[in-house]
Design goal:
The chain is of the alpha+beta class. It has helices spanning about 10-15, 65-75, 85-90, 115-125, 130-135, 135-155, 160-180, 185-195, 260-270, 280-285, 290-305, 315-330, 350-375, 405-410; strands at about 5, 20-25, 40-45, 50-55, 80, 100, 185, 205, 210, 225, 230, 245, 250-255, 335, 340-345, 385, 390-395, 415-420, 430. It is globular, with a radius of gyration of 24 Å.
């Protein structure tokens, strides 16, 4: 059988397959997956000597019906291993079927790319159909090259790995849901703010909505969110760019967790801040103002606890916690959190490891809370549109009633500050 599958009768001759490596090839890799439909699907049983290209929309082939291909994948394969599950979900929305290779081990695919792909993307960077111009044989070559790289990684997969299960499950599900909502933008404001610097806005901007893209494969497990030259995780509060982001519904409502990192550490050492301001509590313990306590705390947490504070409440227990983590890391060779395993590295220090672990706990805490919130919002007009570590931005509809805001607040297990506004700029406390 040829490797190009373009007719229904050819599709029916395939399989059944076992675990497979799958590539969902959209019409341009540079576009946000929300905005680029599928062109081809590559599938290869990891026990077989070659893969196949299932043709959906390409200039060189007839087209299979996408629903027929999906039904075939669901009925004739076991687990589907992909290079980015969050992106694959835009094209193949069957969460339990997909397994993310990058959470097993991040592969080096540099040698997999073909010169043909390089040529076409150099000359057709923002064309919506670049992958339809590249010959199917070259897509096949690239996917076969990638298979050779990822097969040893797939073979390391363990179904009992709880860190993998969290990342491949709730973590991916939550950030795919936030991304896919997008954020409404004001056209003229957006042109004024980004027009000179943003060469290809169409890559993630369509019909007045812009789509961010969370990178889940960071060292600490804390997602970054820079896409198409815009850092959505750190939009400038002073240059006016936040004015461009507007609610589709009635207003933005932001829930900002108060003093989050010290509270995470408080959870780890059983120190109860209660409902009081984090730094007010620490200021009372240290005999300083709230602002001074905030500055001192950040210096201790991210640079190591100073000698003068090693016997002070809270910081004393932080020293004990840090020493215990470091011992486990050094003598056990690794330290595991819910969403990351930190393996021994000669350049690691105690304070850096603690910082990484705080960020990891921040992410896993947030995912657990947001997973519940997103389920709650499924039948609501209000949407979660942006995540910035200790703050969650909602596009709120009055049709959902004020009880919705109370319910969301109750699902966030920490004291919060609530802000609102008609744009992302200058949100005011409620």
């Amino acid at each position: 059988m040829f490797y190009i599958i373009e007719r229904q009768d050819q599709l029916q001759q395939l399989g059944p397959f076992n675990d497979c490596f799958v590539q969902f090839i959209q019409q341009n890799d540079n576009y946000h997956p929300k905005l680029s439909p599928l062109s081809l699907i590559y599938v290869r049983d990891i026990t077989q000597h070659k893969g196949y290209v299932l043709c959906l929309d390409h200039n060189e082939s007839f087209a299979l019906l996408q629903q027929d291909v999906f039904e075939w994948l669901l009925g004739n394969t076991d687990r589907l291993f992909v290079l980015n599950k969050k992106e694959a979900l835009y094209h193949f929305p069957y969460h339990d079927k997909l397994y993310d290779i990058n959470f097993i081990q991040y592969p080096d695919l540099t040698g997999a790319f073909t010169s043909c792909h390089t040529f076409y993307y150099r000359h057709h960077t923002a064309s919506p159909i670049t992958n339809k111009l590249i010959p199917i044989s070259k897509h096949y070559e690239e996917c076969e090259n990638a298979f050779d790289v990822v097969l040893p990684i797939i073979q390391k997969f363990r179904s009992d790995n709880v860190v993998y299960a969290f990342n491949n499950g709730p973590l991916t599900r939550v950030f795919h849901a936030i991304e896919s909502n997008g954020i409404k933008v004001d056209k003229q404001c957006f042109i004024d703010a980004y027009g000179k610097d943003l060469l290809y806005p169409q890559l993630n901007l369509s019909k007045g909505r812009i789509y961010s893209q969370y990178n889940l494969y960071t060292l600490t497990g804390r997602p970054s969110n820079t896409y198409n030259s815009i850092n959505f995780a750190a939009l400038d509060k002073n240059n006016g760019e936040r004015l461009c982001y507007r609610p589709t519904n009635d207003k933005f409502v932001e829930f900002d967790i108060q003093g989050y990192h010290p509270r995470i550490l408080g959870d780890m050492i059983d120190f109860n801040f209660g409902d009081k301001n984090t730094y007010e509590t620490l200021g009372e313990l240290l005999g300083v103002t709230t602002q001074e306590a905030k500055e001192l705390t950040f210096k201790q947490l991210y640079g190591g606890v100073w000698k003068d504070y090693r016997n002070q409440p809270f910081f004393r227990d932080i020293v004990t916690l840090t020493d215990g983590i470091w011992d486990e890391y050094q003598y056990g060779g690794q330290y595991a959190t819910r969403n990351r395993i930190f393996t021994r590295d000669a350049e690691m220090t105690q304070s850096k490891l603690l910082n990484y672990i705080i960020q990891s706990h921040e992410t896993s805490n947030n995912v657990a809370m947001l997973d519940n919130i997103l389920r709650y919002l499924r039948d609501k007009k209000t949407k979660l549109v942006l995540y910035t570590y200790d703050a969650f931005l909602f596009d709120y509809s009055k049709e959902d009633g004020t009880q919705l805001l109370t319910d969301i607040k109750d699902m966030i297990h920490y004291p919060i500050n609530v802000k609102q506004g008609k744009s992302y700029h200058g949100l005011e406390k409620i």
